[in-house]
Amino acid sequence: MKLKVKNFNWLAGRPVVILNHETAKALNVFVDDRVEINSKRKIFAVVDIFENLVKTGEIGFSHEVSTVLKQKLNSKVEVNSAQISLSGRLIKKKISGKRLTKKELNIIISDVVHNNLTEAEIAYFVAAEKLKGMSQKEIIFLTEAMIKNGNKLEFKEKIVSDKHCIGGIAGNRTTPLVVAICAAAGLILPKTSSRAITSASGTADVIETISKVEFSPSQMKKIIKQTNACLVWGGSLGLAPSDDKIIQVERLLNLDVESQLLASIMSKKIAAGSNRILIDIPYGKSAKVESKKQAKELASHFKQLSKHFNVELDVVLTDGKQPIGNGAGPNLEMLDIISILKQKPNRALDLEKKSLFLSERLMKLSGIKNSKQKAKQILASGKAFEKFKEIINAQNGKNNFDQQIKKLKLGKFKKTIKALKSGKINEIDNKKINSMCKILGTPETISAGAYLHKHLDKVKKGEPIVTIYTESKDKLEDAIKFYEESKPITLE
Amino acid sequence: MKLKVKNFNWLAGRPVVILNHETAKALNVFVDDRVEINSKRKIFAVVDIFENLVKTGEIGFSHEVSTVLKQKLNSKVEVNSAQISLSGRLIKKKISGKRLTKKELNIIISDVVHNNLTEAEIAYFVAAEKLKGMSQKEIIFLTEAMIKNGNKLEFKEKIVSDKHCIGGIAGNRTTPLVVAICAAAGLILPKTSSRAITSASGTADVIETISKVEFSPSQMKKIIKQTNACLVWGGSLGLAPSDDKIIQVERLLNLDVESQLLASIMSKKIAAGSNRILIDIPYGKSAKVESKKQAKELASHFKQLSKHFNVELDVVLTDGKQPIGNGAGPNLEMLDIISILKQKPNRALDLEKKSLFLSERLMKLSGIKNSKQKAKQILASGKAFEKFKEIINAQNGKNNFDQQIKKLKLGKFKKTIKALKSGKINEIDNKKINSMCKILGTPETISAGAYLHKHLDKVKKGEPIVTIYTESKDKLEDAIKFYEESKPITLE
């Protein structure tokens, strides 16, 4: 069917066209169906139905369609409801339980990157991966395809290091500490992080409290050249960009798909140029990985995968049965980090200990001898703190570190919850602490969150257990209610 | 986060809000994520990101949101990225392989109907149904939920009849003939049909060549009261409306999900008030159901399901190894039907024979004796033709049947393909014939399609095999190329 073009030029995030009901009916398409537009080039776009923006016989282009087709206003294009794409047929093949080849997985991932698949089609792919499983070969092909369809960083240094934590633990903000320590020891660390998905904050949210985090790949390389490392958000770099899209669909149901997790982490690290990778798998009842057995299996899959990609990989299984560090929430976690870097007496020693352990392992993996003592010495001497400042100042483009950390305020509404009896704290549920922080407004409200006065320790009646912060009275009340009902912290 | 309301009042087909990039980032949401809006009522909506329509801190409401929340321009509402909904958690439960209860399936279906689930979430549900299977109980609960969440028709007559074909066969337009014959025999038939999904045309597309097909439930009942039957499009009646939404997601990959097929057909028929249901399952290599074994299994599942719902159900397994009737495409199929009703000598005898057989079975199931002879006599005597005219005139609201059928023209571009050698046609592939018709422009171009001069018969060199019709020279050439490459008809 020939339709008249209107360029609306809005950024839809993917190729979208607007039709009115009448035209959509004639094309036999619904909202979120796909149409194929043929002019000088062929492009697929997702249908949105608006009544007032276009007339019958007209088609409105989003910016993503306009820039590809370059059609003038009122010119005509041939539009048809799209038959199932090749990727669609391949996803159907995977649903039927068959294996996909290297070429086939590349077609799917390329279509994900070029927005040729709808979220529903990606959901089918994710469900098929989850329910039909992926062979070791398929995971390798998937990882390769995810690396291939995106930007890649290269460094002249032979050894490039990185760490990744599987997550699910409240607080647990080891990354800024490990990066500072290892960069001070001379390692190159192109560290990219995500924003919060299910937790109170992601590393990118925490760094953003005092620093810019969005950079282009060349800006990122410049920062690393200056300081050995960076602490940036991974989302704007175009490294394995299919991953961001797939994660967006996974998180609709908070699905954990192991093949996707493996490919996601490996592709991001390899695209960033890393070849010495430390994976931290915390396990515990309320962590993402629930048992040591599961953690061991996952570790062995990572190791197998790393062999194929010629990277040296080390995995540590860590204690995930409670939050790590005192704070959960962007400003609170940054305050924990600064305290440790400054070696303040009241610092979170559990977070320090774990960060030193991870630094030691990553340094060892990257060829540094006496790594245990070196890590300790770098932190104790203030070298790590200096390196951290250097990285933040490089990211901000000016020496404003001291001003930035002065802005780390906590929410004006707060409540301290005290022990109703003496005893021992026998559980601090990571998921519930994260949920409570979300209710308090994290990660959007950077001053919100929870400060744990105690971990799995003895407490006396009346001692403070946790203080919660937020900028809204309603949210404070909601969080208190949630605390009372869901009991994230229990005493025995 | 508090946002300022703009009512855009466009019909998006589901609750949609518009944010700009900045606001979406602050909320940590992407295109197609869901937000929760709290004012006097709480509503979930899907995010669209437009740069120019709203400013930072503003939220644009689609008609579906505006009518629920009734917020004034520039008033403020609380907006947050939506946590996983209860339905989301239930779908995740199904993905993990657990059974869903009656209450749980009702929650999911209710959310489908009220647009509270995104297409991607529905895709997860469909994939879980397909890959984890549904127990007999779950299928019953699903069917009940689909009936409950929608309109229902009731008739004062004790016996209400209907037929359904599983589909996949090119042509095969038995429904108008069966409805005309059975209605002439005195049966009540609230027949609703779909438009084309994968075939050249659906029954609704074929009827629409000469008649209105979109009615409200009360208009539909009026037509049945006048004529005993109707031949309407099922999409506008609100009978088991969740089905339409789920089918839309299934067809993204042309997925066949048996549990959904069973629930879909049973819920539509029962919601329409039918209690005598004939199911036609054609099987064959290029049909939807590929083997007799599969057809038998499906038949037994239908029978089990019917027992629970207290309806009498008969299943016939029919030959699906080639198209039925001569024409494939809206006008061509209507011409086949008129020829049979008029008992023209050149009519499609295979289509007539099958329609008589189905009529006989449905009449017998509905308590009519001597149904075989009666069906024959009704067709031969012209009573079926009279009844068909009556139904079409009732649907059009005037006696314009003769004028309407004069409009049944065929495409001005055509090509007849002839036998290159003498021999026997050993295959006519339904899927390929349907694909060729789609290339010719069906169902949008009602005059397009294929006319089969031969079925699985002997042919002499030079005899015409098939004539194809379309309104576009390009499409004719594309279809000829497709014919030559994919060989839908082969000789031995």
Write up what this structure looks like.
The structure is a homodimer of 492-residue chains. Chain A has helices spanning 21-27, 63-69, 86-95, 102-113, 119-132, 136-148, 175-184, 203-207, 217-227, 242-250, 258-271, 292-308, 330-341, 349-365, 371-380, 383-396, 401-406, 430-440, 473-486, and strands at 2-7, 16-19, 34-38, 42-49, 58-61, 76-81, 161-165, 189-193, 229-233, 276-283, 312-319, 327-328, 413-418, 423-428, 449-452, 458-459, 464-470, 489-491. Chain A is globular. In chain A, strand 3 (34-38) and strand 4 (42-49) form a beta hairpin. The termini of chain A are far apart. Chain A contains 19 helices and 18 strands. In chain A, helix 3 runs parallel beside helix 5, helix 5 (119-132) packs across helix 10 and helix 6 (136-148) packs across helix 11 (258-271). Chain A has a 6-stranded mixed barrel. Chain A has a 4-stranded antiparallel sheet with strand order 12-15-17-13. A 3-stranded parallel sheet of chain A has the order 7-10-11, with helices on both faces. With 492 residues, the first copy, chain A, is an alpha/beta fold. In chain A, 43% of the residues lie in helices and 19% in strands. Chain A has 3 domains: 2-81, Barwin-like endoglucanases (Beta Barrel), CATH 2.40.40.20; 161-235 and 264-405, Nucleoside phosphorylase/phosphoribosyltransferase catalytic domain (Pyrimidine Nucleoside Phosphorylase, Chain A, domain 2), CATH 3.40.1030; 413-491, Pyrimidine nucleoside phosphorylase-like, C-terminal domain (Aldehyde Oxidoreductase, domain 3). The interface between A and B is large, with 52 and 52 residues.
